[in-house]
Design brief:
mainly alpha
């Protein structure tokens, strides 16, 4: 069984915020055996895989690393529409076109670099975080344009209470945890120095620098507006 299985099994338990002892008891095995499964020391049988899928409410394909969709939908990257190479502009707005290009280029570089780590958990969490960040922006635009909340699966009360914001923060935590675990396991990482990035990805690196610089300025401006503690 591949390494994705053991990492995903451990990650699902951590997402559920339960101890290894409780999960083992619920799954009908010893804590020691679950530890072996989560660390890739031993491989479980089909019966355990089925029980774990039911317990964590995910598909076997997700647990085995064959899909990023927890419900089991297989995503074929060759058939996925990709607009990153389109040279058209967003009609009526130069500002929108510029922002689109900067962010698309930056996200392309982010996932290019993440792909070199071969850390599935980090890639998944990054996608979930960005999706959760876009969600309230699109929903607010949809609502302002006269759209109905019924279009979304998340009900209006939960959205207003910040459910999507909470999901975004959870994804960011999982992303950091995945990268820290990957580093602790001596996993691969790409070179991240400015010279290498500029040489390997000149256009993308330039966009990323602009996006990061703008975010730094925005954060520093907010810090400067905070009242002094003295």
């Amino acid at each position: 069984m591949n390494a994705d299985f053991s990492r995903t099994l451990a990650l699902l338990r951590q997402e559920k915020e339960i101890s290894q002892r409780k999960a083992a008891a619920d799954l009908g095995i010893s804590q020691a055996l679950l530890s072996h499964y989560e660390n890739g020391v031993r491989e479980p049988g089909l019966a355990f895989v089925k029980k774990a899928c039911d317990y964590y409410h995910v598909s076997a394909d997700y647990l085995l690393g064959r899909t990023l969709d927890r419900d089991g939908g297989m995503i074929d990257s060759d058939e996925l529409y990709d607009s990153s190479d389109e040279k058209g502009t967003l009609r009526g707005s130069i500002a929108a076109t510029l922002q689109k290009k900067l962010l698309v280029n930056t996200i392309n570089l982010l996932f290019e670099l993440l792909g070199k780590t071969n850390c599935r958990e980090a890639v998944t969490a990054a996608g979930q975080y960005l999706g959760a960040a876009i969600y309230p922006l699109y929903r607010a635009l949809h609502r302002a344009a006269g759209g109905k909340d019924a279009f979304f699966a998340l009900d209006a009360a939960a959205f207003s209470a910040g459910a999507s914001d909470a999901a975004m923060l959870q994804s960011r935590a999982l992303y950091r945890l995945a990268l820290e675990r990957h580093a602790a396991e001596d996993g691969a990482f790409p070179a991240m120095d400015a010279e290498t990035l500029t040489g390997s990805y000149p256009g993308l690196a330039q966009s990323m620098t602009q996006v990061l610089h703008a975010a730094d300025e925005q954060a520093n401006k907010w810090i400067a507006q905070m009242p002094s503690s003295h």
